[in-house]
Amino acid sequence: MGAGHAALLVLADGRFPAGGHAHSGGAEAAVKAGRVTDAASLEDFCRGRLHTAGLSAAALAAAAAAGVDPLALDDAADARTPSPALRATARRLGRQMTRAARAAWPSPELDALAAARPRGAHQPVVLGLTARAAGLGPLDAAHAAAYEAVSGPATAVVRLLGLDPFDATAVLARLAPELDHVAERAAEAARRAVHEGPDALPACSAPLLDITAEQHAAWPVRLFAS
Amino acid sequence: MHLDHPDVYPHRHTYSAASPLRPDGRRRALRIGLGGPVGSGKTATVAALCRSLREELSIAVITNDIYTREDAEFLLRNAVLPPERITAVETGACPHTAIRDDISANLEAVEDLEAVFSSSSVGPLDLILVESGGDNLTATFSKGLVDAQIFVIDVAGGDDIPRKGGPGVTTADLLVVNKTDLAPYVGADLEGMARDAEAQRGDLPVAFTSLTAEDGVAPVRDWVRGQLAAWTTPAA
Amino acid sequence: MTTLLDLPAPAGLHAAARIVAAPGAGGRTVLPVLEGDGPFALRRLRSHAGAAHVCLVGAMSAPLGGDRLALTAVVEDTAALRFTTTAATLALPGRTGAPAAYDVRLAVGEDATLHWLPEPLISARGSDLAQTVRVDLAASARLVLREEQVLGRAGEPTGRLTTRLTVRRAGRLLFDQELAFGPRVPGWDGGAVLGGHRAVGQLLVVDPAFAARPAEPRLLGPTAAVAPLAGPAAVVSAVAPDALALRKLLDSAASRLNAVLQPV
User: Where is the composition biased (Basic and acidic residues) (chain B) (predicted)?
Assistant: First the structure.
């Protein structure tokens, strides 16, 4: 333990080759439905995602980084993901992240998870275990997961709406204090989960993200995989 | 062997195309990438290659569409290969990212195809063609994804493309100049293109094709056969 | 309506109700325990086939602000219970501004069936309610559970409402979901969560028959979908402008899941 901030920058870099660039985090469906049309509605969207799916993901990641059994966390992630399209996406991205993580920070724990879930574990669990392999702590893992929860949609909306990228980045900057707060909540829950198991983790959910993920998965023409 | 069999994964080569061996020690399929600008005939070249080689080789195709599955569906509709041999990868509007900067989704697709066929009665694949979504002249494949790459341009896109160069034109293992049949109509100077290409590429080969002609894909097919022969011959 | 009004008692009200459904003679389900105090007036109604039907009658005002309500139902092996309410449950603010808690605990035994179909929970302006629903299912148990939340009475801003629904089957977590809406909940009305809708609900169906024949993912218009869970279960999730539209969506989904739903 005890890696500095640099490893976190590597892990949270949007160019970390783990497949995230092809996913919009529900933003493509929200744009099509007219719920995201500009920087303000993008901010509302990202805030909602951050405090729901983002918090749940951050808590799973923090718990994995804290040493909670990744397979139990993977089951907990399944129970927190009612949409089959989102479960498939989470496992696909988890598998892609496993590949990148094993190259970047080889670890027996990542190998064991890959062996136990050859089709991919849920991405936040892999992210947390990757943070652990990189010598990062639960709060770092939570930060990375929470940031991903908003950076993915923000980047996607730049491509989908032609939104000014400076505006999109300003949205992320405005959300930064809330992101810190979510990460701290997630890390706190992860500390409890070490003793109480995954039930101690939040299971926050966003109805529209779940519902529209199923719709998006059925579209014949789309820019993003999810 | 089931696809999900946990025993195979840890031994699998997981993050680079560099290892030429399968987990079981046999040589894996040769992976050839096809890139090039929109409309230059990548999908048509893939389709022609499949028709021309499918009797002698076990082939699979991975498409990287920009925002649809149209390339995959074109191949399916035209029945150049059965559906289980075609996989579409979604690229989030960034086809060059998916073949160069973040190849993870394509590697998953490659390994899934290899695993399915290795474990089936059909037997392992010989050749996997990875087609990029149409992009610009700088889009090239990562060496972590493919063993060799073909860059497809066409005469109608402008006969100055070889002269302009760019990573695709300059470094691809094979440059294909397609739609030569259109040269008279668009005023393209084929000899000039050949000269420019040689100036940019040195000894690297260039193939001029007209896929509308009988066996028009022959120069590309012969090059692929050569690559395969080199691939399957164990290094001394 | 079961109005959950405010009482002067600063500590708030603690009330509990308990239902036990057990197999009786001739395949009929009997109710050896049917008790409730405070706002919980439970009635046995005529039922389909051999199942027992218990109805929570909205006869009493139930305080919520600062109160704790607990409702427990146990369906013993092979028994069948249907639970309904005569009216919506209304969460109202208490005088102290303290949050209220409503905890529902359900247990369903082997080859037993529970249909838990209460009317909506309405969050009135200024209220603050935390509801938890925990369900423990035996491996062969069947469950149909409907949950509807309405945010504010007509034309009124919503109170604060948080819910957590956790379902375990054979000891294993099957479904775990927290929802939070209203004041001090960041982003709840944005395009990711409710997008301006004021009614949200789900119909959760657990049936061992899904193991052999899983439900197909299905879209029910732009704001509702049927989703098979990672287990022998499916959930219909929906958001709608109001309670009526929400019920329509959930009912249409219920009829589509009829293949596995046997009336009780």
Answer: 1-10
